[in-house]
Amino acid sequence: MNANPLRIVFHGQNAAQFRPGMEALIGNRHQIETVDDDLSTDAAVEAFTRADVLIGIRLQVPMPPLHQLRLYHAPAAGTDAIDASLLPPGCSLCNCFGHEQAIAEYVFAALLIGHVPLAQADRDLRQQRWTYWAGAPGALRTELGSQTLGIIGLGHIGQTIAARARAFGMRVHGCNRSAGPADCVDQFWPLDQLDNFMASIDAVVVTLPLLPDTRSLVGARALAALAPHAVLINVGRGPVVDEQALYEALKSRRLNAAIIDTWYRYPSAGQTTAAPAHLDFASLDHVLMTPHMSGWTHGTVRRRQQTLADNIQRLAEGRPLLNLLRGPTPRSN
Amino acid sequence: MNANPLRIVFHGQNAAQFRPGMEALIGNRHQIETVDDDLSTDAAVEAFTRADVLIGIRLQVPMPPLHQLRLYHAPAAGTDAIDASLLPPGCSLCNCFGHEQAIAEYVFAALLIGHVPLAQADRDLRQQRWTYWAGAPGALRTELGSQTLGIIGLGHIGQTIAARARAFGMRVHGCNRSAGPADCVDQFWPLDQLDNFMASIDAVVVTLPLLPDTRSLVGARALAALAPHAVLINVGRGPVVDEQALYEALKSRRLNAAIIDTWYRYPSAGQTTAAPAHLDFASLDHVLMTPHMSGWTHGTVRRRQQTLADNIQRLAEGRPLLNLLRGPTPRSN
Asked: Which chain B residues are Cβ-neighbours of A122 within 8 angstroms?
């Protein structure tokens, strides 16, 4: 198909990781450039302002104006750091998924390791102690597959976790604004029955994005409704779980354990170290703390590159875009 | 149904763990006793010799004769320590499965933890270092779902692992004497093509029992066929993988990593410590060593109790037994 070449600019360190190998996906017709986060050279500013397609995760005042941009594409799901009011009228805004498989692997690694004490068993057997030997008294372990998993949020991530949970034999309860695909969970609870949902499960995974009505959605009352043995996992956004309520539930041991990947504070640009919260979660030994890593795999990059490439082809050929968050106004095609 | 009460004896420490709660499954009509491994009292010997149903994992000379035994039931899959020639002619020999779900959880805990560096991430973030933060250069991790899993042995365990592997998006290759259920793997290799099978996969799980023709089945040539990044998991029986060949492949780093749950040496009765092999696997840091624990969960006990109860009911009612390894000769029913 005859399509116009585009000026494609990868903006910043995050976007740059999706650059290698793009020619193999979109051919050599397009002009591809990579510019740094700070647009620290005149050439970078020039490339930025003249881009047809910008790939990045941050667009904020006082970045240079975008005169002819037709597509701003986040290589990520979240677009909360992209000020859409800075996009010119003819520009579309799209995002990417493809992280749900990676996040599910993180979730099941964390859940399974709570049932299979591999590290302790290895330490002991290296000293010739057969601590968890089958048949020995007291050696029996618990089983993930015998449990009920609760999932808050039934989007890409929630559904992907649900499918793997069922493969392990788990019962799956979902809590969401809307029911999602009819058969993706065994039992569905609307958000206004969150406390009853929490009381029905052995482990809960929060997968929701941060929106005005999801902030602190999981608060003290919902946490108190969990069973004493329950574990909470947050791979959505930190503040969906109220920080103070989570800290106090853990500190008082009313909450058995938490696995937290999404946080309340993040390093600023250039910072190499930073506390991930206002409260001292690092003082608690029944929390597994990870640095917003759950979705970040080579597979995620590869799947998102495919989405970027598909949409660049679609734009060049005047076909409808995928994962469209905001279309052009007025329509440019 | 009108059925005769039976004298049921749980023999030894292992069997005793299947005793609690049996009345809830088989009712109160039967007489249930538990005796110690050594039959150290006259009462224990008496109960043993008069049993209708014996539940145990070890039957060897010079144990007392079993005059009226109708069913010897292992609460385990393996019956290699049960000398069937000691069973009276009218006696059936049965075994139990129900461990495959637990073993699959062990396998996926061990596989996933190789891709998701939870422990390191936790250690670092507690010191405010965001080592694996999404988007950071060098932070990308690998993904289990992008890989091909090889499974040697396509029985209960192999099929259960295959189903979970597919839920994670893995490609599954199987190597077995016979093909098993047609659709349980994506590609099947007969045992005489073991080396080609080994060359086709990223991780391999050995699930085979120890039989004359499986001993040292996985030897130096098969191990050498694995890719440099491959990992080997043994949850079948230790000697199915040749000890010397495995040790040398690991020692020379031709084999990237191994997760070993089934071993070459086990503690004798009464021993509290014992090396699990003749060679010094504990000196290798790229081996995860666990003490034959993979199948030992509360869920396994519950599922096996159900099999024991089903067969006791069937025996009492004269119906055909499940998991029959050896029937009565001549038929007693």
From this structure: 288-290
- Judge: B134–A293 Cβ closer than 8 Å, yes or no: yes
Asked whether residue B7 carries a pLDDT value surpassing 60, the answer given is yes
- The fourth-level CATH superfamily of domain B7-98+297-326 is NAD(P)-binding Rossmann-like Domain (3.40.50.720)
A13 neighbourhood in chain B, CB within 8 Å: 135-137
CA–CA separation, A322 and B186 (whole Å): 31
- The alpha-carbon gap from A3 to the nearest alpha carbon of chain B, in Å, equals 32
d(CA B3, CA A333): 81
Provide the CATH number for the domain formed by A100-289 in this structure: 3.40.50.720
The whole-number average pLDDT for the span A140-155 is 97
Q: Which of A139, A168, A282 sits opposite B293 (nearest CB)?
A: A139
Residue of A11, A101, A116, A287 to mutate, interface with B, max B Cβ within 10 Å: A116
Query: Are A113 and B118 in contact (CB < 8 Å)?
Result: yes
Q: Which residues pair with residue B149 across a beta bridge? A: B172, B203
ipTM of the complex: 0.92
Cβ partners under 8 Å of residue B166, min gap 6: A167, B172
Tens digits of residue pLDDT in A233-274: 999 999 999 999 999 999 999 999 999 999 999 998 778 899
Rg (CA), chain B: 23
* SS3 state of residue B188: strand
> Within 10 Å of residue B327's Cβ, how many Cβ atoms?
16
Kindly report the nearest CA distance between residue A14 and chain B, in angstroms: 5
A131 contacts on B by Cβ (under 8 Å): 291
The type of residue at B166 is R
Closest CA to A39 of A12, A14, A8: A12
Residues 6+ apart with CB under 8 A from B20: none
Beta partners for residue B187, in sequence order:
B173
pLDDT digit string, tens, across residues B280-329: 999 999 999 999 999 999 999 999 999 999 999 999 999 999 999 998 86
Spatial CB neighbours of A31, under 8 Å, sequence gap ≥ 6? A5, A6, A7, A8
Domain with CATH 3.40.50.720 in chain A: 7-98+297-326, 100-289
Q: Please tell me the predicted confidence (pLDDT) of residue A270.
A: 78
